[in-house]
Design a protein that fits this description.
Elements lengths: L14 E4 L4 H9 L2 E3 L6 E3 L9 H18 L6 E13 L5 E4 L6 E8 L7 E4 L26 E4 L5 E6 L3 E4 L8 E14 L6 E3 L1
Antiparallel strand pairs: 1-9, 2-3, 3-4, 4-11, 5-10, 6-9, 6-11, 7-8, 7-10, 11-12
Length: 205
């Protein structure tokens, strides 16, 4: 038997789509006030609720969040996903972002406003606790790596791209090897509503 079928069990979905960039969004992230991150590898906007000042972009991002959680994940309409915070990131030439995840959130994402070729792609990393195949005590070598076997999965970013992912997913940004600054907007969501029934019911307001 030469043909076979593989069932991809419990994959971690990453949503990708596009929102055409408007000049006023670019101007806003260029002109907002930034501060250096604590580990001094990039800049972050002092405004941690930046999308409140860009309501049309926020509405676009919210619509993509709804599409992801309702059309793909089929989340029940009894609960809603609400944006908690949002900020812009500026990566100067030679800046990068270390491996990290977004705490106190369930769904996170990034919108790419002004990212030149070579200014830094996003990579997702398989955490040590995510054993989708073999245990880490055995280091199996592969001839070719793909979504199932790779420890790291890179997405090449471009202007207008929006990415949504579970907040616990570890990710990093490669070094900006271009001669221009790289601008993106990051954001987090959490749920509101009633979950569960009877003694397992939980209401988040």
């Amino acid at each position: 038997m030469t043909h076979f079928r593989v069932h991809q069990l419990w994959p971690c979905p990453i949503y990708e789509n596009n929102i055409p960039v408007k000049k006023e969004w670019v101007d806003h992230v260029h002109n907002t006030e930034y501060e250096r991150t604590k580990i001094k590898n990039s800049d972050i906007s002092k405004d941690r609720y930046l999308l409140k000042n860009l309501p049309d972009l926020k509405n676009e991002i919210d619509s993509h969040c709804e599409k992801f959680v309702r059309k793909y994940l089929h989340v029940n309409n009894k609960i809603s996903f609400n944006m908690l915070n949002s900020w812009s990131n500026r990566h100067l030439p030679n800046d990068h972002s270390q491996i990290h995840y977004h705490g106190n959130a369930m769904l996170s994402g990034t919108y790419y406003v002004d990212c030149a070729e070579g200014s830094g792609d996003i990579s997702f990393h398989r955490g040590q606790l995510h054993k989708n195949l073999f245990d880490e005590t055995i280091r199996v070598e592969y001839e070719n790596l793909f979504e199932v076997t790779a420890d790291q999965y890179k997405i090449k970013v471009e202007n207008g791209m929006i990415i949504l992912f579970p907040s616990h997913m570890e990710h990093s940004i490669s070094t900006n090897i271009s001669n221009t600054n790289r601008y993106s907007i990051a954001f987090n969501y959490f749920v509101k509503g009633k979950l569960g029934i009877e003694e397992y019911e939980l209401e988040i307001k």
